[in-house]
Every structure is written in structure tokens, then in C-alpha cells.
């Protein structure tokens, strides 16, 4: 049970930067919030169809096989998202907006990402349902789901707080490439702009955060792959709280 807690609480760290910062980066680049939010409309059919499509696999005695298959694919999609974020500014139109083509690319990207994300979610929920002790109603299931949700929230909070430390900016003389000093803090950035200079981004912490989370995810996957496989071999009765 202890290893199950570890999986639930740490399994989504690999996706924290992608899930928590990508949308903020797009908004920071000038993508309207309403258009970004409207992308979710295209994901709704996937959310409806995917549980039906993978139902026969998640209803099997080994539903976590879907989780294990989706995990590396979702890490890969984190790299794809980072590449798309890097590529997005080159699409900016003179009026500051972005072409429909870019929105279409992002919708497709989010659809592929959603496949991995939702497959992981459904498979884990299916396993939680299988091992929950029916003698205590939905309390067991609720506890497992709460831990699973917590495991998806705390990494995002942590990465959001750390990304600033991965970001490096230089105060540059306006119109030149001459670097005066680093302006990583708000005070130094204000000092730079007040002096008529420009605080330019040198290293974007988003990409470092994505790379770091992905590396942790790869290590996590290799370390706990056999454990997750073993969970499915444990008799369901052994997960019960109230033994006969």
C-alpha cells in the first residue's frame, strides 16, 4: 500500500511543467484567453469517446497496463509542447494576433496530449475501483482519488514556484546587444527599464522545467514500472481494509 501512495502522489510530477505552465506561456505571448479556452471544446468528444474505446482494457484484471503504455507517450508530448511554445512567436501577425493555422496546430497537439492524459486517468480510476473495499462504500475510492488528484496538484505548485529560479534575464542597452547586468529580480528589471534599457530574456525557465520534469519522469517510470505491474498481481482481497 505504501508504494501505491508513492505512485499516486508522485506519478504526475513528470507533467507538472507542461500542464501548469504551457497555457501561461501562450497567454504571455499574446494568445487571447478566450481562444485558448475555446480549444477545450474540441477535446470534449475525446473525453466522451476514450473511456468507451479503452473500456475493454481498463475493465480487465490489468487496467494499469494502459497507464504504463501512456506514461512515456505523455512525457514525449511534453517535449512536443515545449517545441510548439518555442515555435509559436514566429507565427505572430503584424496586428499581434495569430493565424488560424497555429490554433489548429495547438488543437491537434492538445488532442494527442489528451489521449495520453485521459488514458492514464481512466486506467488509474479503473484500478482504484477494482481494489476499493466495498464494505466501506465509496470512502476507499474517494481516498484514492483524492490522493491521485493531490499528486497532480502539488507538483504544479512546486514547479510554478521554482521556474523563476531557472529563468535568466539580461539588462541590455536599447538598440544594441551590450549587456549591462543581470535583471533576474523585479527590482533589477524595474531599474533596467527606468534607465531606458531593455530587460531581455536570455534563458527561459519553462524549457528547463520541462526538461527537468521529463528527466524525473523517465527515472520514475524506470524505477516503478515493475512495482506498478506487481500491483495488478496482488489479489484484490488483499487491498481490503476490513478482512474477513
Describe the structure.
This protein is mainly alpha-helical. It folds into two domains: 201 residues, Growth Hormone, Chain: A (Up-down Bundle), CATH 1.20.1250; 36 residues, no CATH class. Helices cover 68% and strands 6% of the residues. It has nine helices and three strands. A three-stranded antiparallel β-sheet has the order 2-1-3. α3 packs across α6, α5 packs antiparallel against α6 and α5 packs antiparallel against α9. It is elongated and about 75 Å long. Keywords: Membrane, Signal, Transmembrane, Transmembrane helix. InterPro entries: AcetylCoA_trans_1-like, AmpG_permease/AT-1, MFS_trans_sf. This is Acetyl-coenzyme A transporter 1. Its main location: membrane. It comes from Toxocara canis (Canine roundworm).
Write the layout of secondary structure elements.
Blueprint lengths: L1 H9 L5 H13 L4 H21 L1 H4 L5 H24 L12 H32 L7 H28 L1 E5 L6 E4 L3 H9 L3 E6 L1 H27 L13
Antiparallel strand pairs: 1-2, 1-3
Helix pairs in contact: 1-7, 1-9, 2-5, 2-7, 2-9, 3-6, 5-6, 5-9, 7-9
Determine the mean pLDDT: 89
- State the helical fraction: 55-70%
Count of discrete structural domains: 2
N-C termini distance: 18 Å
Biggest sheet descriptor: 3 strands, antiparallel
The SSE order reads HHHHHHHEEHEH
Based on Cα principal axes, name the global outline. Answer: elongated
Oligomerization state? single chain
DSSP strand content:
5-15%
Q: How many β-strands, per DSSP?
A: 3
CATH A-level architecture of the largest domain = Up-down Bundle
Radius of gyration: 22 Å
Class from helix and strand fractions: mainly alpha
Largest sheet strand order: 2-1-3
The CATH class label of the largest domain is Mainly Alpha
CATH topology (fold) name of the largest domain? Growth Hormone, Chain: A
The total of helices stands at: 9
Protein name: Acetyl-coenzyme A transporter 1
Keywords: Membrane, Signal, Transmembrane, Transmembrane helix
Membrane topology: Multi-pass membrane protein
Transmembrane segments: 36-54, 66-88, 100-127, 147-168, 206-225
Amino acid at each position: 500500500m505504501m508504494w501505491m501512495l508513492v505512485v499516486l502522489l508522485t506519478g504526475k510530477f513528470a507533467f507538472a511543467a507542461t500542464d501548469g505552465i504551457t497555457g501561461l506561456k501562450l497567454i504571455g505571448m499574446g494568445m487571447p484567453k478566450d481562444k485558448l479556452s475555446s480549444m477545450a471544446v474540441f477535446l470534449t468528444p475525446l473525453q466522451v469517446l476514450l473511456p468507451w474505446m479503452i473500456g475493454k482494457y481498463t475493465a480487465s484484471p490489468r487496467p494499469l497496463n494502459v497507464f504504463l503504455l501512456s506514461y512515456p507517450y505523455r512525457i514525449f508530448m511534453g517535449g512536443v509542447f515545449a517545441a510548439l511554445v518555442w515555435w509559436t512567436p514566429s507565427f505572430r501577425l503584424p496586428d499581434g494576433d495569430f493565424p488560424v493555422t497555429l490554433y489548429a496546430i495547438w488543437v491537434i497537439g492538445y488532442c494527442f496530449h489528451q489521449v495520453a492524459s485521459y488514458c492514464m486517468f481512466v486506467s488509474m480510476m479503473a484500478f482504484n475501483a477494482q481494489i476499493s473495499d466495498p464494505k466501506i462504500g465509496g470512502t476507499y475510492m474517494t481516498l484514492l482519488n483524492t490522493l491521485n488528484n493531490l499528486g497532480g496538484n502539488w507538483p504544479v505548485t512546486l514547479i510554478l514556484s521554482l521556474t523563476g529560479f531557472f529563468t535568466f534575464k539580461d539588462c541590455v542597452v536599447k538598440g544594441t546587444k551590450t549587456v549591462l547586468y543581470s535583471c533576474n529580480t523585479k527590482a533589477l528589471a524595474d531599474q533596467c527599464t527606468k534607465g531606458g534599457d531593455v530587460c531581455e530574456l536570455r534563458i527561459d525557465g519553462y524549457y528547463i522545467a520541462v526538461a527537468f520534469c521529463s528527466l524525473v519522469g523517465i527515472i520514475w517510470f524506470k524505477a516503478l514500472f515493475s512495482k506498478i505491474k506487481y500491483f495488478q498481481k496482488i489479489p484484490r482481497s488483499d487491498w481490503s481494509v476490513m478482512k474477513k
